[in-house]
Amino acid sequence: MGTSGLGFHPPLGMKKTGYKMADKVFEISLDTKLLEAVFGSASAAAFLDRALDLTAQLLQANMVQQAPIDTGRLRGSIQFPEKIASLKYQISINAKYWEALQFGTGPYTIKPKTKKALRFVVNGQVIFAKFVNHPGIKANPFIDRAIDKTSPRIEGIVGMALDEVLTANGAGG
User: Fold this and answer.
1) CB of 158 within 8 A of CB of 51?
2) List of residues 6+ apart from 53 with CB closer than 8 A
3) Which neighbouring-strand residues pair with 46?
4) Pairing status of strand 88-92 against strand 82-85
5) pLDDT confidence band for 38 (50 / 70 / 90)
6) Quick one: which of 54, 90, 130, 139 is 20 to 30 A from 16 by CA?
7) Claim: this prediction has a pTM higher than 0.85
8) How many angstroms separate the CA atoms of 14 and 3, rounded?
9) Cα(81)–Cα(23) distance, rounded to whole angstroms?
10) How confident is the model at residue 160 (pLDDT cuts 50, 70, 90)?
11) Contact between 35 and 44 (Cβ < 8 Å)
């Protein structure tokens, strides 16, 4: 389960053309050439857009489900998919720390920002320290798990989207 493979195996000539995991945005886009050749550009675009919309919605729901829970802030910060261009959706995550949870961190030092010392409680005892050496955060790849959970359902989503488009065009039955 690494972010390099991402686990999508799209059917019917749909292929992954891009995932962007920079900043706080996760994008999905598709190549339309094969379906345009089979269905014509208007029907192919409608079909692919619906399939991508449904996939993005399912992926977002799975990201929320797979996100680790402490306060619930991370889960609440995973936004509903937004269409940003033709056949391109993005899912934004507004919690600044999502990358530290997804990928983990190395050891780091925590220093006070506004006071002379940090204050925390250990075993009921108040501790003051000028700094703390944190051992780091172990990776918790919740996005990878969401992708793995979404991938097996893509074929069904594509079929559902195809049925909707064919029915809308009078060819379904």
Assistant:
1) yes
2) 81, 83, 89
3) none
4) antiparallel
5) low
6) 139
7) no
8) 20
9) 16
10) confident
11) yes
